[in-house]
Specification:
Shape: elongated
Structural class: mainly alpha
Number of strands: 2
Largest sheet: 2 strands, antiparallel
Strand content: under 5%
Distance between the termini: 47 Å
Number of helices: 5
Order of helices and strands: HHHEEHH
Length: 153
């Protein structure tokens, strides 16, 4: 193995993969435990019929995703050099973003176990995993590829 350190973008890709695999593993365990447990009707009736953990997951989905994009953009702005974001700023911004969008998925996985049913409690998890897949770290903001307004040619 070489002594070369991973670049910030390569490190971020490892973190991205770990977050994705963690979410898949946690949901897989919760679904496995739920399908082996009591029927969904009994679990909901014991809690009074209000799926409070799913409502919390939905509320987190609505609040943490815009907050994640906002905070990531603020970190980008603080690390803007010339017409690009520094690699370290790109890494920091995306780590914060991944942490914020991971939160509703974890709560959704818990709701599957607590409320005893997979569907519709899976929806916040699916939205989060979809956003994570769409936001694969390509390093685009670290490259100076912005168009030059007013430039000839």
């Amino acid at each position: 193995m070489s002594d070369e350190a991973l670049s910030p973008i390569q490190t971020l890709r490892v973190i991205w993969g770990a977050v994705l695999m963690g979410l898949v593993t946690v949901m897989g365990v919760m679904v496995f435990l739920t399908l082996g447990g009591e029927p969904a009707e009994e679990a909901v009736n014991e809690s009074g019929g209000l799926p409070i953990v799913s409502l919390i997951a939905a509320g987190l989905l609505i609040t943490t995703i815009p907050a994640g994009y906002f905070v990531r953009n603020q970190v980008y702005k603080a690390n803007w050099r010339g017409d690009a974001v520094t690699a370290e700023g790109y890494q920091k911004g995306n780590i914060v973003f991944y942490a914020l969008i991971e939160f509703p998925a974890v709560v959704a996985a818990i709701s599957v176990l607590v409320e005893g049913a997979v569907w519709p409690h899976l929806i916040p998890w699916l939205v989060t995993v979809g956003l994570l897949l769409v936001n694969f770290p390509t390093g685009g903001p670290t490259r100076d590829e912005s168009p030059r307004l007013g430039a000839d040619g």
